[in-house]
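Hello,

Following up on my earlier ticket. Below are the two sequence lines again, exactly as submitted.
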Amino acid sequence: MQEQHENNRPSRRYFLKTAGAGAAAIAGFSAFSPSCNPASISSAEYEKFFGQGDTILFQGDSITDAHRDRKNGQFNHPAALGDGYAMLTASELLGKLPGKALTIYNRGISGNKVYQLDERWQQDCIDLEPDVLSILIGVNDYWHMRQGRYDGTAGTYAKDFRSLLKRTRAALPDVRLVICQPFILTETSAVDASWVEPFRAYQESAATIAAEFGATWVPFQEAFDNALSLAPATYWAADGVHPSMAGAQLMANTWLNALK
Amino acid sequence: MQEQHENNRPSRRYFLKTAGAGAAAIAGFSAFSPSCNPASISSAEYEKFFGQGDTILFQGDSITDAHRDRKNGQFNHPAALGDGYAMLTASELLGKLPGKALTIYNRGISGNKVYQLDERWQQDCIDLEPDVLSILIGVNDYWHMRQGRYDGTAGTYAKDFRSLLKRTRAALPDVRLVICQPFILTETSAVDASWVEPFRAYQESAATIAAEFGATWVPFQEAFDNALSLAPATYWAADGVHPSMAGAQLMANTWLNALK
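Thanks for your patience. The regenerated structure is below:
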């Protein structure tokens, strides 16, 4: 449905043409929704994070994938972006920052662990030349080991994640990294309290690695923990891993909030 | 993915149990996103529109339908809500008002005109017992007539729309109506300037009828007209009728803003 160009990327001419008008126009955008909102995100606050014509890539597992049509590799297209936080975040960015002419892709794949991102990284990350790369990975690295389907440990996760980011920095020296905290919700159909301690090692590794690589850190676990005072865990994610619509919206808000 | 109960409706017991906690918790929700936002919607501002356990129904044509899975009649389910403004609005409401325990349905069907809503109104509206009913209808009433596929006029639209709302009020005396302004964007693949004058008759009828029935009015045409200063019409809706992700987000923001 979006304006498409040869090789499935927006023309640089369009960006150049609209850059000046866009910057001026953003200021006027608030004119038809002028309320002051203490519970949400101002476009002005996260706007600075994005450059003109930026390409944004969401990478990860099923939480990012979120039933996207994997045969549809388009950017800025709802079926290609799935029905999770990546699509909600993309909608917000495209709706609030029209002057930026952003290009937004989702390449999450259900079931992925870090090493599986690495296997498809050239095609599904580097070739897309993202300016902003968001990664949410880790729950399967723990879950599949717990189920006996995978023999990697928390140490494997950390080693593989560092290696992936070194490779990324080598190929894309200027990419801005957004690393998302893997999360779980206990008292749900798939997750109980016995997950919390062992999974914390993965969460701590992700945080350490985010700091090492100068990434923006998205604290999803804290967002969900806080949200439990408002509704039970199953409201946010029935199985404790895959968010509901409410959970996906909470994630989108948290992701945008982290960029301020 | 949502907590489901017999007969596909949330239990009233859950609502009663969570009502007090929800009201108290809403106030605390802003604690982890405390920014002041001049360009967006505060949950506090539209929160008052909704009662505890409200059922919200989105009705209309393809713009509301938005590729929803029509075999999936569930509430609060992303595939059942499609990929348009209804889904984005539902996500925002479910994410921001967890204490309200809202039930949100989409029953838009692509291609529908007013008389076709009437044909399926018992099953697709009245039987769902909505507390809030949002209707966006009219572009096909004009477009199909223009194409020679339908012989209804602007007068037919007004007559059919009034009749539908009288029937609705008779069956659901307390329903809160939200009537959305049908809209078009010229300089797009399907819509040119020759649409503007004849389509205005439909828009004016919708506005008049909204006022007659005490409905909340959602000014989509004005929102899109204002947005043209930020990006070209094709950014918001490639064919001038069906919104892009950016257009759908603009609609969701406009819908929520109308409820303040």
